[in-house]
Amino acid sequence: MLKRDVREKLIAIVGEENVEDNNASLLAYSYDSTARYQALPDAMVAPRNKHEVAAVVKVCNEHRIPIVPRGSGTNLCAGTTPSEGGIVLIFKHMRKILEIDEENLTITVQSGVYTKDILEAAQQVGLFYPPDPGSMHISQIGGNISENSGGLRGLKYGVTRDYVLGLEIVLPNGEIIQTGGKLAKDVAGYDLTRLYVGAEGTLGVITEAILKLIPQPETKQTMLALYHDLEAAAESVSAIIANRIIPATLEFLDQATVQVVEDYAKIGLPTEAKAVLLIEQDGAAEVVARDMEKIATLCRDNRAFDVQVAQTNEEAEQLTAARRTALSALSRLKPTTILEDATVPRSKIAKMVKAIGEIAEKYQLTICTFGHAGDGNLHPTCLTDARNEQEIELVEKAFAEIFEKAVELGGTITGEHGVGMMKLPYLHLKAGEHGLEAMRSIKKALDPNAIMNPGKMFDPHTKQSTGVEK
Amino acid sequence: MLKRDVREKLIAIVGEENVEDNNASLLAYSYDSTARYQALPDAMVAPRNKHEVAAVVKVCNEHRIPIVPRGSGTNLCAGTTPSEGGIVLIFKHMRKILEIDEENLTITVQSGVYTKDILEAAQQVGLFYPPDPGSMHISQIGGNISENSGGLRGLKYGVTRDYVLGLEIVLPNGEIIQTGGKLAKDVAGYDLTRLYVGAEGTLGVITEAILKLIPQPETKQTMLALYHDLEAAAESVSAIIANRIIPATLEFLDQATVQVVEDYAKIGLPTEAKAVLLIEQDGAAEVVARDMEKIATLCRDNRAFDVQVAQTNEEAEQLTAARRTALSALSRLKPTTILEDATVPRSKIAKMVKAIGEIAEKYQLTICTFGHAGDGNLHPTCLTDARNEQEIELVEKAFAEIFEKAVELGGTITGEHGVGMMKLPYLHLKAGEHGLEAMRSIKKALDPNAIMNPGKMFDPHTKQSTGVEK
């Protein structure tokens, strides 16, 4: 519970209606989309503008109160679980698209803007914001930036980081800084912009962003390639890239996932296939047509038993929409769904999927795998029950092995979900002890009182709050 | 001069032949490509591998000896001038291309590899490494990464940062870390990779890099558009982008530059034009043909009095090669050439070029302007004489005004050259005091003894060497 004087200070800044600390509110902000992580905050605070954010941060810094900046809470790494209590900062009053600049191809937004609204605003003027994380219909851009969200178009178009040109940040000391700008080139000092992308809210609060837009691709085509075995699908992926074609989307689904998605979406997916690739190309009409033809041939050459090209836009939309439902579809099957995102170099996908299968079998677990084959970003998803402690112990062992295997193959413990609380115990596998030490020293330098989202990414270095009563 | 015991320790690590401290060597490493900056180091050290780099850094850290990592010294910001003495670290033994991975589209290189060799190695297997800084024929990739070098293809393809997937870094404490990997997606902890890109050697020594390659564009076309006035050229740039075309290259040269380049290259450049755009598009043949036709029409609609399309590859090569000689050509005219790279949002180019002209006139200086119009990265170049103290004072005043104007227009003090010593006094203009403080705190956290390239980017926080005799 916040001390009375702290509570009053916060109310003086944001107004009484924007500080909530009744039980219902605290419960609502005690968890995000990650199974098995929950902790009550001391209050929810909703500042109305950057100056209020700065003032709130100053109060929290003075009283050593943890701040958990939270978008829509769609993250899958327990990145916004208020594990150390404190306040959850939400951005419901900061939802403005401030500007679309068609000459410089940028969009400037407040951090509470929904990702989908950015895509749509760009589309309305013939421009394109490519990052499309699975949760884009409800996720907020501040969260996307803090988690460096990926999505289905990472292979060809990159991730959120590649579209952030500038940020407005409230530092942990409450000062506001601007980084970057509407600039394709800017090397004035350290790249704070990219340091804050993916920093998971541990280094400050992002209040505004300048994002890069690109011309909308002229046209798009979608196909499915069906396989009797996984290796053939992986070899097709390699063959496509080896032929110097970079598709806009190159998704992999295993049979279990296809079956579950079909049960859910009922659009006639090929449940008889052991592995399916969903492939999309966009660009100029001639190029797309030529690429799709080549891709179809390469898939057949690599033992696809069928290649189905979507005949209409609606059909294509249905296919990608179905792929996007994978997580929702899988979560219907068992009480608890644990979605992971171990990532490997593209050439190691077959090895990784095979290893996941072996690990699942070893621990007798149900793990379905789908993901972004084009960029090696897999989503092994375990269907389990958090109440079954015995099984959960096995799940943890299995995932630890999966992470180790990914790193062994030259990969990483997380491709697009972030570290949060969930991968904190594994970060050393990828970063190494000295790398971890370097990261911690940056954290300590910028947030000496450890108020910013403590308990995420690594253990907090200090946490004696003077503003909260236990 | 290095103390005898330190000198012996260094020789024990790298061998006697790889420590040079005779006067000729010290003089050779006392300056880089930046006019008016010079300082003698205490020694040149050339480690043979990363372990030797690490051992050298440990010795230097112990004795607080400044380390200046240096590629070919082609930077234009006095980024490798050993202003605090110490050792200059060179990479002549670390020039190996370690691997081209055609499946993951990566190239792994040691930091001493020449940029041009990377482009050529990629090209040989039908792949493409887009960053092409002006000095790419002799620059080394370690320097490119440390300066986040840009080039002519920034608009469409981005800068060095966009192609660095992973790094091997020797930290200031002498520990070796690996960041990133052959991964399109990786969010395991802070983005150390991008923090070190553009850190100008102030946070550690880069020893190896994994770079991203992309498929080689099928075809390329080049044209010149000639104008009677600058505004018309700037409006053409805006019109091209407004029509959702992103050319591979979109360069601007003013009349003075065109004349000087023509005097030098003698290829029949249109010296009668007040402003010239050099435009290149690459990609699939149909798309390039269509884009070039549209671009030509847009240029004519925006008052180009002539549009000349290169008829052969040789002719096209000649044009871009001529553009690349701009700096060399200009440097023939006066004893001292000071090349700047104030950068503004693309939409502000006309305003910026006009302001540069007014400032030149105000101070009665010769400033030629050329640069990357597509990304707002201009190179106002002052032809002067460093021995004329009175004029140099005016030059400094003029550039200070140019930087202020750039920032006022939403731009930056440096688009691709870096801060180094040269822009150190101006960094606060772009970063702001709190941003600068955040950067300094990162520097202090990672390099507490201030041994890494001290005196660059910001004033060193401490510099009591115990390993050098004054």
Describe the model.
- The first copy, chain A, is of the alpha+beta class.
- Among the domains of chain A are: about 95-215, Uridine Diphospho-n-acetylenolpyruvylglucosamine Reductase, domain 3, CATH 3.30.465.10; about 220-305, Alpha-Beta Plaits (2-Layer Sandwich), CATH 3.30.70.3450; about 335-410, Gyrase A, domain 2.
- Chain A is about 35% helix and about 20% strand.
- Chain A is built from 15 helices and 18 strands.
- Chain A has helices spanning about 5-15, 25-30, 50-65, 115-125, 140-145, 155, 190-195, 230-240, 255-265, 285-300, 315-325, 325-330, 350-360, 390-410, 425-445; strands spanning about 20, 45, 65-70, 85-90, 95-100, 105-110, 125-130, 165-170, 175-180, 205-210, 215, 220-225, 250-255, 275-285, 305-310, 335-340, 365-370, 375-385.
- Chain A has a seven-stranded antiparallel β-sheet, sandwiched between helices.
- In chain A, strand 17 and strand 18 form a beta hairpin.
- In chain A, helix 1 packs antiparallel against helix 3, helix 8 crosses helix 10 and helix 13 packs antiparallel against helix 14 (about 390-410).
- The longest helix of chain A is centred in the last third of the chain and has 20 residues, at about 390-410.
- The relative contact order of chain A is 0.13.
